[in-house]
Amino acid sequence: MNLIKSLIIIFSIAISTVASAQEDETGKTADNAGGKQQNEPSLQVFSKFDFVPGEKVLFFDDFSGENIGDFPGRWNTNGSGEVVTLGGMPGKWLKMKTGGTFYPETGKGFPENFTFEFDLVASFETEPGCIDIGMYKSTPDEAMDGLVPGEGGGTCRLEGHSISIFNWKEGNYAGIENSTDNNYYFEHNNNKIRISVSVQKQRMRLYVDAVKIYDVPRFFPEGILIDRVRFALGSCEMEGYQPFISNFRIAAGAPDMRNKLMTEGKLVTRGITFDSGSDNIKAESYGTLKEIAGVLKDNPAIRIKITGHTDSDGDESSNLALSKKRAAAVKTALAGQFGIDAARMETDGKGESQPVSPNTTPEGKANNRRVEFIKL
Fold first, then answer.
1. How confident is the model at residue 8 (pLDDT cuts 50, 70, 90)?
2. Handedness of CA 37, 120, 195, 67 (dihedral sign)
3. Domain limits for position 344
4. Residue 285 φ then ψ, to 5°
5. Which of 152, 212, 284, 356 is deepest in the core (most CB within 10 A)?
6. Dihedral of CA 54/137/166/233: which sign?
7. pTM for the predicted model, two decimal places
């Protein structure tokens, strides 16, 4: 795990549950507690990252619409938690108190191919506790504190010096138990990490930041259609351990970018994301950019137009300018990081003028924040 250790960034942040984050008209979060701002990883750091999120956002929550101190309205728990801010970290976070189980109330099942992602900050004094990330088919009468709830599924456990997985069916372990020894979670005390999971039928891939930890072809028991993702904190409690999550997103589908662009002539992606109110591309966009660059390299004769779109938050003219800047940033990344000839790419931006979903829900806004590639 030398690659994992080489990614470690050491610094401290001050955690504040008192100060509230206020958003300006463009949706950019203000610095809230005077803490040290965490340096975001660059695209190059994620150069081996091949995760590509699903095409359509099914559930999204960054807790921006919640009041500080409240439990988020679209989540359920048998424990307690609250929305807080963290010094030096943008946005709002769900503080999950140990001993409880937490899950988003998505309202419906997921397709057989889907992805989910979230940011995680874990704070601890000497040793971290663990957090179980369960993915399974639920039942109406299941106990929230059950280790293997519902009809069947699988769990990824982040703890101390290891990341482990196990699966089950009808309350019994189904045969896969494995543990990967590494210190990544342990050594990132008070630092944000990105967890990304891809599910394709029975197959599960787990990424921690830029590193693929697991790729298991038969992880989920056959015939299980997942409809719940949950976090459980009761398995290995440690004094002083406190996890926080934010920017939780579930998306449907396994994008076929080559077919979309070459056959249909248009590719729409929500896998290229940006800092709020900015044209700075987030590092976790690398997998999507890499896939698009691969299509362009394999078809050197085609030219494309890159068009940015935003949601309706903020001023209309500012959103238009921002969408144009974001399209230009994608062009720069494809040229600079992947060697695509800049002369093959045009850019444009439509701001909030062409929504594909109502801007009345977090999911609708997330689907409207997109980048389109049109074959010329």
1. very low
2. negative
3. 257-375
4. -80, -5
5. 284
6. positive
7. 0.84
